[in-house]
């Protein structure tokens, strides 16, 4: 129970932190990617001066006052009907709630001129901001009219028309969270970061925890039925276990999306949260796909048909790694696209950055292509024993950058794939037998009869060994050395195990020595050893 609670709290905080970071990065990126003016000389654009009594200035002032909770001052921008003066603050608060949830007002699109637009097919001094349906389904036009200064203390401005103000109560009744707006303390009704009210910031963790709990429940139920349906497949338990977290995230995002309308978000906040949820939904999908690639790679490498194909295991390992990189790249691109990032600019930047990166990381790129070349040509596979220059070892793994060898001394040697692809590689793994070869020096005291007998005896003893291929036994008197008659001996040992070969090699060498001793002679002593012994003997015989 405690572990589940910790997991729930960790997920809640992680989701909130992810939303905050996504929003912050999106805002910073949007500011960074705004088009800048060119430094080249151009025809000066004639900017419309924003008048203090224009529709743009008036609506901006009304929205700013409402966002700060100063509804009494904001009521100055309402053309209140007679007898409704005392409800000005209430009507301003309700109208602001309606506009926040039902109609997005882009003040930059409003006229900066004192008289407003002249080609809007409306009476002079009138502009329409949009239309909203009330609780009964009636369409209400949201209009503003010009208010002229009537006293020296008054000022000209644009205000919401009486026809709009008279329908504020009916429009407010269509809001889903009006009860909360009417009963929550005023500080909680103020807007915080990213156009979210403070009460909505408090509700987000609770909603996230609720969606997480629901997601876990739905995941458990779906997993229960999935285990029944996939019971005959041996890989299903591992597959379902790996998908549990991304599926929980996906169901949680889906439940959050379904409950989002009941949070009463403003249009601006709803747009941001919707984009963030879509991004998280795509990340959950690609997370599940990422895990699926891992499971498929594991199952392929452990399959019975791949057990005797080391090359398949090597290709599977590298293929899984490349698949993960591809899935992660696509996931990030889709998430950035949902958050409003210019993906085409990112791809173009990645292309330019990729060239610079390739120049700065030539060795890494060389190793990457070297690994592709090794996997395509397959000069060796995992488990083979290879010899590269003076290095000999067993291949333990072939990665994207390097190949790991385990030597006979149990040390690990890491060779970059870029260099390895260009080197001379001797693969000892594919051989079906191992060649035994040695030189047998016989003392010069032996005569011809003894030499013939020794050659025949050595050939017989080697041919009779159970692990030696009889047709490939070679025993011949090869040369006359300074102090010996030299026999060249070679044979093919029927084994691929080097430990078994070492045992057979010991038997063959002992058989050669026994054959020499059998016919009354001995192995030759090197001339250097004889001279060294003689010099030591002379030095001891000299008088002191």
Automatic annotation (TrEMBL):
Residues 34-59 are annotated as: Disordered. Residues 364-425 form the Mechanosensitive ion channel MscS domain. One of its GO terms (molecular function) is mechanosensitive monoatomic ion channel activity. The chain crosses the membrane at residues 198-226, 247-267, 279-297, 318-337, 343-361. Residues 324-362 form the Mechanosensitive ion channel transmembrane helices 2/3 domain. GO terms for cellular component: plasma membrane. This is Potassium efflux system KefA protein / Small-conductance mechanosensitive channel. Keywords: Cell membrane, Membrane, Signal, Transmembrane, Transmembrane helix. The keyword Signal applies. Its main location: membrane. Residues 34-46 have a biased composition (Low complexity). It is a multi-pass membrane protein. It is found in: Cell membrane. The lineage of its organism: Bacteria, Pseudomonadati, Myxococcota, Polyangia, Polyangiales. Residues 1-30 form the signal peptide. The keyword Cell membrane applies. Belongs to the MscS (TC 1.A.23) family. Gene3D superfamilies: 1.10.287.1260, 2.30.30.60, 3.30.70.100. InterPro entries: LSM_dom_sf (IPR010920), MS_channel_1st (IPR049142), MscS_beta-dom_sf (IPR023408), MscS_channel_2nd (IPR006685), MscS_channel_C_sf (IPR011066), MscS_channel_TM-2 (IPR011014).
């Amino acid at each position: 129970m405690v572990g589940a609670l910790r997991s729930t709290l960790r997920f809640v905080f992680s989701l909130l932190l992810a939303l905050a970071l996504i929003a912050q990065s999106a805002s910073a990126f949007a500011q960074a990617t705004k088009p800048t003016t060119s430094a080249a000389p151009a025809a000066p654009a004639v900017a419309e001066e924003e008048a203090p009594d224009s529709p743009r200035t008036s609506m901006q002032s009304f929205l700013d006052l409402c966002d700060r909770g100063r509804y009494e001052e904001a009521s100055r921008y309402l053309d209140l009907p007679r007898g409704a003066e005392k409800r000005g603050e209430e009507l301003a608060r309700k109208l602001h709630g309606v506009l926040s949830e039902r109609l997005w007002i882009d003040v930059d699109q409003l006229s900066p001129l004192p008289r407003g637009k002249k080609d809007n097919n409306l009476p002079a001094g009138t502009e329409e901001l949009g239309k909203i349906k009330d609780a009964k389904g009636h369409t209400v036009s949201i209009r503003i009219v010009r208010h002229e200064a009537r006293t020296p203390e008054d000022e000209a401005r644009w205000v919401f028309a009486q026809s709009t103000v008279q329908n504020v109560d009916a429009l407010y009744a269509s809001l889903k969270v009006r009860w909360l707006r009417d009963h929550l303390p005023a500080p909680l009704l103020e807007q915080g970061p990213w156009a979210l009210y403070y009460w909505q910031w408090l509700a987000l963790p609770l909603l996230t925890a609720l969606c997480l709990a629901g997601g876990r429940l739905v995941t458990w139920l779906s997993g229960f039925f999935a285990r029944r349906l996939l019971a005959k497949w041996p890989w299903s338990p591992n597959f379902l276990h790996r998908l549990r977290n991304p599926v929980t995230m996906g169901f949680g995002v889906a439940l959050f999306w379904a409950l989002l309308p009941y949070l009463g978000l403003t249009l601006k906040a709803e747009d941001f949260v919707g984009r963030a949820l879509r991004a998280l939904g795509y990340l959950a999908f690609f997370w599940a796909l990422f895990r699926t690639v891992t499971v498929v790679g594991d199952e392929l490498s452990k399959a019975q048909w791949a057990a005797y194909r080391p090359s398949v295991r090597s290709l599977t390992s590298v293929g899984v790694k490349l698949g993960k990189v591809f899935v992660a790249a696509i996931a990030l691109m889709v998430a950035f696209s949902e958050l409003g990032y210019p993906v085409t600019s990112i791809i173009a930047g990645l292309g330019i950055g990729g060239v610079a990166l390739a120049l700065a990381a030539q060795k890494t790129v060389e190793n990457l292509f070297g690994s592709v070349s090794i996997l395509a040509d397959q000069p060796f596979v995992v488990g083979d024993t290879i010899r590269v220059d003076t290095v000999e070892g067993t291949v333990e793994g072939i990665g994207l950058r390097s190949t790991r060898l385990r030597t006979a001394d149990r040390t690990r040697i890491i060779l970059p794939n870029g260099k390895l692809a260009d080197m001379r590689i001797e693969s000892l793994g594919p051989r079906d037998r191992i060649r035994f070869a040695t030189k047998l020096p016989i003392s010069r005291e032996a005569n011809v009869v003894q030499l013939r007998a020794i050659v025949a005896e050595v050939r017989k003893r080697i041919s009779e060994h159970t692990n030696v291929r009889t047709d490939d036994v070679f025993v011949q008197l090869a040369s006359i050395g300074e102090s010996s008659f030299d026999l060249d001996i070679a044979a093919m040992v029927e084994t691929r195990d080097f430990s078994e070969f070492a045992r057979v090699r010991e038997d063959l060498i002992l058989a050669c020595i026994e054959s020499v001793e059998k016919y009354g002679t001995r192995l030759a002593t090197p001339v250097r050893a004889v001279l060294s012994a003689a010099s030591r003997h002379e030095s001891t015989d000299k008088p002191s």
